[in-house]
């Protein structure tokens, strides 16, 4: 949860798709331990559950003693052995291949590593039960505490205060920290202990940077200001769970309604209500591109709320506060996603720029690149297109661009006034290529439809066979015609040198982002000093497109 942990992360890098895929079967160790526990519990030597005490302090005391005297030193020496010669390459290198430790990394490894950990966890339990001091609370309590300490160490978030170590210096030898474990994971030549650095001290393998680095991380000195922010919003209740801190595996794939998410719908619905009444914009994910930190923030509002008239003021306030926060932090560019730049809501961002004329952060709607992506999808031999949503911000730009190319544009609109206003913006010699139509029947012979307004199955039937539907309508139209083809929403693939990217942007494929997101990225990489709000500057469509290609972004 970056909105809680951003300032206390040990390693600033992100968890990428490669690491997520490599750790996909992290639960193999849990399955192995479950099978071993079932075999032990079924053995004649193990007392029946009904015979076990709920609590026995002798067992807890004995388990603690055995952990310190058996599990800790045994794991320490076994771990050191795994870092030597062929043992490391065969049995331990894969575990260290994860560049950023995560709680799931704790369970990622070979069967030999899982057996060593199982033995380290099971020895205190076995000793307590052999002495007749076992209890139900010991089984559950010991396993929970063991797993918690493992996950804490691998969390990559410093949760132990350096002040505690300063007040009680001996404590640093009794409890490791995420910083301590992270140093071992990266440098591989020190900090081998299970949970107690005492054994590294006795073995002479403590990393000299452990305590100073832990202090720096604990004080937030490892934090960094993002260069670019993509300000998104939640689409609906189910998709609200498509985030790394809910289900990392699901968020690493394009969004789909998965069965595993449905039982949690009531929980997600409760969080929606909570966010509605008491929350602010928060950080969802991040990645690095050519040394620049790019973050995605989310306004705590859901798609349907943008269409409630009484919610308009509150949503704009949330967006405004996010822009002002980014400005105060020193963010260079903030790009507005989807409904956050709705024309009826805030004039495509114009409201904020007009209200705060001295903003240092550049506010961008990204629609210039969105228009460029759509326009560059249209084959060069097309002479006529049918355009719905023709008088919208994107529709206007597309119509004006195409008429300059001498392509006839059938603009579907009932408003003659709005049509004429757009037509008058076109050069005199190009105005004849803009034609107002009021019915779908007018496009019966046109095979290139550019859709900026939802189409019902009945409306789609007017398209001739072989029609291709380009679209910029949200949500995308449903493809009812089998004899036609349907384009996806405008999107671009990020450059190949992107680092730390491990989540998919809604329904987009891995490494692909919405064109408005990509437009903000280009604005940041180019270092442009102007805002991109309000109406789209048609003259800049080709400029932005060429800049995107120059920086390695490619059409998706």
Description:
Helices cover 42% and strands 12% of the residues. The chain has helices at residues 2-5, 17-22, 28-41, 57-82, 85-92, 111-130, 136-154, 162-167, 178-187, 198-203, 210-218, 248-251, 265-277, 312-329, 343-346, 350-355, 367-377, 393-404, 416-425, 457-460, 515-526, 541-550; strands at residues 228-234, 282-289, 292-302, 333-336, 362-364, 384-387, 408-412, 434-437, 448-451, 468-471, 485-486, 491-493, 498-499, 512-514, 554-555. The protein has a six-stranded mixed beta sheet with strand order 5-4-1-3-2-13. Strands 8-7-6-9-10-11 form a six-stranded parallel beta sheet, covered by helices on one side. The radius of gyration is 29 Å and the shape is elongated. The mean pLDDT is 94. Residues 65-205 form the Fatty acid hydroxylase domain. One of its GO terms (molecular function) is iron ion binding. Its EC number is 4.1.99.5.
Characteristic key phrases:
6-stranded mixed beta sheet, oxidoreductase activity, 556 residues, elongated, endoplasmic reticulum, Fatty_acid_hydroxylase, alpha/beta, Sterol_Desaturase_Related, 6-stranded parallel beta sheet, 22 helices, NADP
Number of extended strands: 15
Strand order of the largest sheet: 5-4-1-3-2-13
Query: In percent, how helical is the residue content?
Result: 40-55%
How many H/I helical runs? 22
Shape field: elongated
Which regions have little confidence, pLDDT < 50, spanning 5+ residues? none
Output the radius of gyration.
Answer: 29 Å
> Mean pLDDT score, rounded?
94
Distance between the first and last residues' Cα: 29 Å
GO molecular function: aldehyde oxygenase (deformylating) activity; iron ion binding; oxidoreductase activity
Subcellular location: Endoplasmic reticulum membrane
EC number: 4.1.99.5
Organism: Panicum virgatum
């Amino acid at each position: 949860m970056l909105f809680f942990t951003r300032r206390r992360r040990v390693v600033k890098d992100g968890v990428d798709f490669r690491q997520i895929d490599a750790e996909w079967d992290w639960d193999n160790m849990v399955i192995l331990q479950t099978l071993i526990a079932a075999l032990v519990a079924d053995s004649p030597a193990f007392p029946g559950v009904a015979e076990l005490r709920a609590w026995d302090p002798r067992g807890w005391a004995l388990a603690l003693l055995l952990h310190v005297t058996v599990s800790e030193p045994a794991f320490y020496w076994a771990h050191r052995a795994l870092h030597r010669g062929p043992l490391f390459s065969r049995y331990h290198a894969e575990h260290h291949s994860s560049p950023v430790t995560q709680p799931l990394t704790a369970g990622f490894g070979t069967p030999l590593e899982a057996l060593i950990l199982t033995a380290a966890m099971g020895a205190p339990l076995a000793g307590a039960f052999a002495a007749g001091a076992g209890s139900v609370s010991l089984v559950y309590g010991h396993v929970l505490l063991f797993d918690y300490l493992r996950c804490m160490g691998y969390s990559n978030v410093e949760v132990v205060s350096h002040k505690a170590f300063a007040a009680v210096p001996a404590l640093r030898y009794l409890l490791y920290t995420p910083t301590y474990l992270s140093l071992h994971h990266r440098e591989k030549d020190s900090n081998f202990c299970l949970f107690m650095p005492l054994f590294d001290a006795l073995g002479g393998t403590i990393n000299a940077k452990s305590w100073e680095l832990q202090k720096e991380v604990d004080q937030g000195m490892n934090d960094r200001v993002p260069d670019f922010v993509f300000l998104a919003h939640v689409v609906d209740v189910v998709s609200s769970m498509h985030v790394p801190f809910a289900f990392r595996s699901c968020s690493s794939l394009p969004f789909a309604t998965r069965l595993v998410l449905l039982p949690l719908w009531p929980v997600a619905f409760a969080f929606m209500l909570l966010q509605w009444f008491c929350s602010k914009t928060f950080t969802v994910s991040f990645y690095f591109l050519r040394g620049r930190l790019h973050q995605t923030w989310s306004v705590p509002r859901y798609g349907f709320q943008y269409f409630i008239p009484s919610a308009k003021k509150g949503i704009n306030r949330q967006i405004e506060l996010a822009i002002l926060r980014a400005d105060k932090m020193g963010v260079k560019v903030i790009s507005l996603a989807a409904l956050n730049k709705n024309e009826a809501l805030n004039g495509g961002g114009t409201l904020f720029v007009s209200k705060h004329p001295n903003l240092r952060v550049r506010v961008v709607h990204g629609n210039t690149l969105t228009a460029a992506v759509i326009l560059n999808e249209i084959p060069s031999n097309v002479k006529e297109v049918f355009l719905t949503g023709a008088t919208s911000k994107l529709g206007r730009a597309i119509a004006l661009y195409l008429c300059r190319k001498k392509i006839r544009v059938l603009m579907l609109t009932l408003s003659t006034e709005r049509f004429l206003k757009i037509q008058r913006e076109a050069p005199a010699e190009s105005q004849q290529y803009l034609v107002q139509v009021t019915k779908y029947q007018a496009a019966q012979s046109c095979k290139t439809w550019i859709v900026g307004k939802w189409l019902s199955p009945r409306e789609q039937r007017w398209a001739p066979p072989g029609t291709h539907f380009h679209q910029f309508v949200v949500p995308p139209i449903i493809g009812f015609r089998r004899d036609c083809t349907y384009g996806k929403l405008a999107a671009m693939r990020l450059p190949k040198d992107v680092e730390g990217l491990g989540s998919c942007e809604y329904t987009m494929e891995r490494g692909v982002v919405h064109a408005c997101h990509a437009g903000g990225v280009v604005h940041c990489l180019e270092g442009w000093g102007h805002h991109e709000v309000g109406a789209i500057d048609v003259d800049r469509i080709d400029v932005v497109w060429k800049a995107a290609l120059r920086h390695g972004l490619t059409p998706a």
